[in-house]
Amino acid sequence: MEKESKVDPSMETPLYFRCPISMEVMKEPVTVSTGVTYEKKNIEKWLYSYKKKTCPATMQALENFNLTPNHTLKRLILTWQAKESKSVVASPLSTSVKHDELVALLATIGSTPFMVTSLKKLRAIVEMDDEIKLDFVQSGGIEVLSRIIVQGLVDFSDFIAFRSCEEALGILYQVPLASEASIELLSQPECMKSMAVMLQRGSAEARLHTITIFRNMAKTEYNWSGVVHDQGMDLFSSLLELVSDEINNKASSCALDVLIEILRASKKNRLKAIESGAMCILIELLPDSNKSKCERMLLIIKLLCECAEGRLALVDHSLGIVAISKKILRVSEVTTRLGIKILWLISSFHPTEKVLEEMLMFGSVRKLLGLLHIDGRSSTKDKAMKIIKLHGDKWRKYPCFPNELRDYLGLKHDHTS
Length: 417
Fold this sequence. Notes:
Elements: E1 29-31, E2 37-39, H1 40-49, E3 68-69, H2 71-87, H3 95-108, H4 115-126, H5 130-138, H6 141-154, H7 159-172, H8 180-186, H9 189-201, H10 204-218, H11 225-231, H12 233-243, H13 249-265, H14 267-275, H15 278-285, H16 291-304, H17 308-316, H18 320-327, H19 333-349, H20 353-361, H21 364-372, H22 379-395, H23 404-409
Antiparallel strand pairs: 1-2, 1-3
Helix pairs in contact: 3-4, 4-7, 6-7, 6-9, 7-10, 9-10, 9-11, 9-12, 10-13, 12-13, 13-14, 13-16, 16-19, 18-19, 19-22, 21-22
């Protein structure tokens, strides 16, 4: 029995030792009628599993399905492996070898029937270091992957196309999207639509990769109007589902960042988010959120409260006012500032008796008072004073109205029962 030799990854592999399908060193090379040699198991899969009748490398029609063992090439490969294994020194792949393999994969990946395998190999190369990631971008890698992602949209029912799309996103997740050209490629409507659909249907890993790509695009001031118009509430539902993910903290964090950029872009986007139930979800997540998430959730709530529909959604929620109030003077200066802005919007534009009573009963007014005791002036403190002066006359009728506020308002103590 012939002893199998393993190829050390640091060896410069002659291109003709590699199977044109898998780009791996061949163990059982066989030649088809066109004269091209392949790894036996790969060409058999092409012919018998995929029912193809052409040569994968040349796309010429095959005269027959005979697979002739290439003994000469096999001896050459074994001799090369034995020679290299004696002299090889453990070291990283040279830059030139990495580049050649990268370029070879990018050139053939669009036509190979083993696209998922090729994408996995490409992903392993890209993961090696930042230099290769940059080389990948400069070699047109993003353009190649964007075509694969778009193809996934054409037929998501095709398992291979779907898995290829997931693998392509796994590579894009790792590379820098700093150039305008890269963003422009991914910003094409069909590519964005495919990624938005993957956000809904993909595996947990694929969804993480997609939302991370979206966040990286958001940093470049990408215009979200097209994808929001196309996907509508489905997009917001997917984002909110990720925000609610208590297991994958990174996906949740990225989803918050993307939501902020989308909502900042237009009032129409905020209305769609409100319609998707964003306010209810955020209010219920807010109590247990950490500092970073709490600040971003409050920013989103503040953006939604700039719409009448958002303010109504907040006050209609039984935990709305109490959840906001508890974050004031408790988490950070940012949460205090945002919390006061939200209370200002609610009390200025929606000052119903129910709202004002809840603000008094659930501690909002006491938090406003706490701000007045802080030394120095600030826009947040000024806003707190305006809220108190705006509604002090109504609040003082309640027994629980803090007496110390009367001094700030210049009110006389009411001793009547």
